[in-house]
Write a structure and sequence with these properties.
This protein is mostly helical. The protein is 75% helix and 0% strand. The protein has a single domain, classed as HPT domain (Four Helix Bundle (Hemerythrin (Met), subunit A)), CATH 1.20.120. It is elongated and about 45 Å long.
């Protein structure tokens, strides 16, 4: 799945930390799953489900600790599948606390939502094609 889609996907957005121009680095994902298509699918489905839970926790965070925990969980999940832009947005969110969090909360949530929507839409297209 990943290797076929990697060749077909064209996107003009900014590159993530690892240099992938796709919302999910399919070469990384393929290495991570040892090329097992069923495992790729399972990991991507889990990410789509769990990432929305983490986003909900981030949006509803009542303390700096809740905020950091949700952002950290999303960052790790995104890194696990090669969703570098989402991981970077979550990492920036995780770094916020106190007044910086109060002043940047809405912008940070929006940034995470945008990158997550891009990743999940892309994953949806991958899963439909497999």
């Amino acid at each position: 799945m990943a290797s076929e889609m990697a060749a077909a996907w064209i996107e003009s957005g900014p590159q993530g930390r690892k240099g992938s121009v796709r919302p999910v680095d399919l070469v990384y994902l393929s290495r991570f799953t040892l090329g097992e298509r069923a495992l790729e699918r399972e990991v991507l489905e889990l990410f789509c489900t769990q990432s929305l839970v983490y986003l909900e926790r981030l949006s509803g965070a009542q303390s700096d600790k809740d905020w950091k925990d949700a952002a950290h969980s999303l960052k790790g999940s995104a890194r696990a599948i090669g969703a570098w832009r989402t991981a970077e947005a979550a990492e920036r969110a995780e770094a916020l606390s106190g007044d910086a969090l109060a002043n940047s909360r809405a912008r940070s949530i929006s940034e995470v939502e945008t990158s997550l929507s891009e990743a999940n839409t892309y994953i949806g297209s991958l899963l439909m094609d497999s």
